[in-house]
Design goal:
Blueprint lengths: L4 H12 L4 E4 L2 E5 L5 E5 L1 H6 L9 E5 L2 H11 L5 E5 L4 E5 L23 E6 L4 H9 L4 E2 H10 L4 E3 L2 H13 L3 E8 L4 E10 L2 E11 L1 E7 L6 E13 L2 E8 L2 H20 L3 E3 L2
Parallel strand pairs: 4-7, 5-16
Antiparallel strand pairs: 1-2, 2-3, 5-6, 6-7, 8-15, 9-13, 10-11, 11-12, 13-14, 14-15
Helix pairs in contact: 3-7, 5-6
Length: 279
């Protein structure tokens, strides 16, 4: 039937006369003044008028394993899943995850889907020592800067000892106005650097400075965690007679992985739940 002005008016009148239609609890289908259908969602307003929410939701963050275990003990469900992400240093529990698939004749093999909007996340924080050492890893700095770093991190040193490294730092301070020349490695596993004091652009008293080729340090990876042993190679460069110093950590990612894996083991032990790996 051809559309006429009369027909259009009848259609519009019919559309505007349609009463709101309830789709689900709190959700209604209505038509606006132009006759366009739209959905109005009042579920939040209705829920807020109730004494309690319809279900548990929310995203919590904790900073230690006991807190994660306590939260799961209170809110955990049979379908709760726990996921670990090493690169982010997080372990997240999805409280209302999908239920397990059922087996047997006549069973729903897909299981019941969960909303996944109730979670708790263990966000591991790196220790100050770990952040300091990894931030300085591979960088060459002046003798004074390197001496300050040694002094600030004396508790971390194993071999050479903290006292020996402090003595070395003091030597760096006292020789920061000399000109360095050649270097050679000695049998003790150290590198000997030759230098000469400079006065009025003339070379004066000569001396040697010995630095270890490798050091061992101990520090926690995460706050409140146990210390881990690492080794580092001391590095140096003589540039226009000036000595630049630094270090290179040996395989710090392996230590990071070991520390995270031990946290995962602790979580599994305290929660009796398997931690699944994700990326």
């Amino acid at each position: 039937m051809p559309e006429t002005t009369e027909n259009y008016d009848l259609i519009r009148t019919a559309q505007e006369s349609v009463e709101p239609h309830q789709l689900t609890k709190g959700r209604w289908l209505v038509r606006d003044s132009q006759g366009q259908a739209r959905v109005i969602d009042l579920t939040d307003e209705i829920e807020h008028d109730n004494p309690n929410p319809d279900r548990k939701t929310g995203h919590r963050v904790v900073t230690d394993v006991p807190s994660l275990a306590a939260y799961l003990a209170k809110h955990g469900l049979p379908e709760t899943e726990v996921w670990g992400r090493r690169d982010k240093g997080t372990i997240q529990a999805v409280i209302n995850a999908h239920e397990s698939s059922e087996t047997g004749e006549g069973a729903d093999t897909n299981g019941v889907a969960g909303w996944g909007d109730h979670t708790v996340t263990l966000a591991l924080r790196h220790s100050d020592d770990w952040k300091d050492w990894t931030a300085a890893d591979g960088k060459l700095v002046s003798q004074v800067e390197f001496a300050e770093f040694i002094e600030d991190h004396r508790p971390n040193f194993g071999k050479p000892t903290a006292a020996e490294m402090l003595e070395l730092a003091q030597t760096f301070r006292s020789t920061n106005k000399v000109e360095f020349g050649s270097s050679h490695r000695v049998k003790s596993g150290e590198t000997s650097l030759q230098y000469a004091e400079v006065h009025d652009a003339k070379a004066g008293k000569k001396g040697e400075l010995s630095i270890p080729d490798e050091i061992s340090i101990a520090m926690p990876v995460y706050d409140q965690g146990k210390p881990y042993l690492l080794t580092a190679r001391l590095r140096y460069r003589i540039q226009n007679g000036q000595l630049l110093l630094g270090f290179k950590l040996n395989r710090p990612k392996d230590t990071l992985q070991e520390a995270f894996d031990e946290v995962v083991d602790d979580v599994q032990r305290q929660t009796n739940r398997v931690v699944l790996a994700t990326s």
